[in-house]
């Protein structure tokens, strides 16, 4: 396959993905995700929107400094301040990019920007020229392009390329496009913008009508050679294009699409799990490519077919996606550290010594309560123990609950505080979890509001671990907490403390929601 057939993969999990309601990545979360994206071998990582907050600028700068391989991009509105902030953040990158966006639809131009088309043309010209003074790699996006007058989009793109834009991105900002129409629009851009041969055409789709992946592939058929999206499709409202879907569609259907990517596809599953864990956006079981059921067959006819020949009902090999199948070593309480380490390696997890010590201890605790510890248990343990890296101001020493169908639930908690001392208190609540949280609040005295509580079984069976995910809000910021245990009340207490500890340590990076006009 020739090089012109490559589709560049632009990951915006850390920028557009972070704009999902309820996500608040810390800087450490962002660096971890960026490192994983580099292992996945995406071409470009959009690391954030530096002008939106000092925390976001710091996070983009940390990624630019530490992550090698992909181009590191930062987003800017079409003004000098935003562009300066992006450059301050990405200048240390091996390959930096400045991504400038500006609305082009009449509805945005008149009602959001309160300007006219001539103003927009001049703003685009000035902004791209300014970005180009810093950086040879500049991307320009006419926001809401699919609801814009095509003639105006062609003129705007021509001006942006004249000023030096090297990538021209076509956003379907509100998820309005229909694949056939979007393909024709992208093709018309390739044909009607006179200097288009000096830039790569990109597409950026949202999923409001459930067509983001279809539209992105239609864009490729129309001539686009960069696709933007996020891992697991996270993003504002109904989300962005799911990159794992686009990547596997391109890999599975070269006969029709005639393109390829350079993505290291066995890293897709580890990337999906990492983003699921750090974002707290739990995947639906039937999510294409990476959902729990994506390769599970339940009807007898299908099972029979797959057992005889996998391809009868599977169009992709789960190994290509990095999904661990079949060869699971069974881990039990008599398993040693070598077995656990070997299985972790197969699952793409390579903890350091201290981290492994904690994982192994937690594995022993779970194995004591369950007959067999499978991959899902193991990943739940990894998830909890690696998030322990968050400074542990408060740790749980004891939780005791008395609850019945008559009377009021009462909880007693004993915590080890930042002073190293033991602190104990009790409270009553409307239910056992409420009583635990009230008792913890009495001890820690951290003002917060619980905005979300959910619990799910990690595996099947009565001895399954329960995984609790919670979100709390303090000072207008959201903090995620997660924990798993075979006792769901213990998991609830630990998840709450995890969120509290996060709120007490590094401040969450507020997403671009703080700055208007990016979707
Ligand atoms: O959806 C959108 O229009 C965007 C731009 C900032 C590219 O995210
Ligand atoms: Zn977007």
Descriptive notes:
The protein is α/β, with parallel strands linked by helices. It folds into 4 domains: 3-279, Alpha-Beta Barrel (TIM Barrel), CATH 3.20.20; 295-324, no CATH class; 325-387; 395-504, Alpha-isopropylmalate synthase LeuA, regulatory domain (Double Stranded RNA Binding Domain, 2-Layer Sandwich), CATH 3.30.160.270. 40% of the residues lie in helices and 18% in strands. It contains 18 helices and 14 strands. It has helices at residues 27-40, 54-66, 80-90, 106-111, 117-134, 150-162, 179-192, 212-221, 243-252, 254-257, 268-279, 300-308, 318-321, 337-346, 353-369, 375-387, 432-444, 488-504; strands spanning 8-11, 44-48, 71-77, 96-103, 138-143, 167-172, 200-205, 226-229, 395-402, 410-416, 422-428, 449-457, 466-474, 477-485. It has an 8-stranded parallel β-barrel, surrounded by 7 helices. Strands 9-10-11 form a 3-stranded antiparallel sheet. A hairpin with a 2-residue loop joins β13 (466-474) and β14. The two termini are 35 Å apart. Mean pLDDT is 90; it is low at 508-519.
């Amino acid at each position: 396959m020739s090089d012109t057939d490559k589709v560049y993969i632009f990951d915006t999990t850390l920028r557009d993905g972070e704009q999902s309601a309820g996500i608040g990545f810390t800087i450490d979360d962002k660096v971890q995700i960026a490192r994983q994206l580099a292992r996945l071998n995406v071409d470009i990582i959009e690391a954030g929107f530096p002008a939106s907050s000092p925390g976001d600028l710091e996070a983009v700068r940390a990624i630019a400094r530490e992550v090698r391989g992909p181009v590191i991009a930062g987003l800017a509105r079409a003004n000098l301040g935003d562009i300066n902030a992006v450059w301050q953040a990405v200048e240390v990158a091996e390959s930096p990019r400045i991504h400038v966006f500006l609305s082009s639809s009449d509805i945005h131009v008149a009602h959001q920007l309160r300007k006219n088309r001539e103003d927009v043309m001049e703003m685009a010209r000035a902004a791209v020229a300014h970005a180009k003074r810093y950086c040879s790699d500049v991307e320009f996006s006419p926001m809401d392009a699919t609801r814009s007058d095509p003639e105006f989009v062609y003129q705007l793109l021509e001006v942006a390329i004249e000023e030096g834009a090297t990538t021209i991105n076509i956003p379907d900002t509100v998820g309005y496009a229909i694949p056939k129409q979007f393909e024709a629009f992208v093709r018309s851009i390739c044909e009607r913008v006179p200097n288009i041969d000096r830039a790569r055409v990109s597409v950026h789709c949202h999923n409001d009508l459930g067509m983001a992946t279809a539209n992105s592939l239609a864009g490729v058929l129309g001539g686009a050679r960069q696709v933007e999206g996020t891992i697991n499709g996270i993003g504002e409202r109904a989300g962005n294009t799911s990159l794992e879907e686009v990547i596997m569609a391109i890999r599975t259907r070269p006969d029709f699409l005639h393109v390829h990517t350079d993505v290291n596809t066995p890293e897709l599953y580890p990337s999906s799990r990492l983003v699921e864990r750090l974002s707290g956006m739990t995947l639906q079981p039937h999510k294409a490519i990476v959902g729990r059921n994506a390769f599970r067959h339940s009807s007898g006819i299908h099972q029979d077919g797959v057992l005889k020949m996998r391809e009868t009902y599977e169009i992709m090999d789960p190994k290509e996606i990095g999904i661990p199948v079949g060869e699971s070593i069974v881990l039990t309480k008599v398993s040693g550290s070598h077995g656990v380490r070997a299985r972790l390696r197969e699952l793409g997890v390579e903890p350091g010594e201290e981290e492994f010590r904690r994982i192994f201890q937690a594995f022993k605790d779970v194995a004591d309560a369950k007959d067999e510890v499978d991959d899902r248990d193991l990943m739940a343990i990894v998830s909890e123990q690696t998030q322990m890296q968050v400074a542990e101001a408060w740790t749980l020493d004891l939780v005791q609950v008395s609850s019945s169908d008559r009377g009021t639930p009462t909880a007693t908690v004993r915590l080890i505080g930042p002073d190293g001392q033991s602190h104990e208190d009790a409270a009553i609540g409307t239910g056992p979890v409420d009583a635990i949280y009230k008792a913890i609040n009495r001890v820690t005295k951290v003002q917060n509001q619980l905005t979300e509580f959910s619990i799910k079984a990690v595996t099947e069976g009565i001895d399954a671990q329960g995984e609790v995910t919670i979100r709390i809000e303090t000072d207008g910021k959201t903090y995620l907490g997660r924990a798993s245990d075979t006792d769901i009340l213990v998991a609830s207490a630990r998840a709450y403390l995890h969120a509290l500890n996060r709120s007490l340590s590094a401040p969450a990076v507020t997403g671009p929601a703080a700055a208007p006009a990016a979707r």
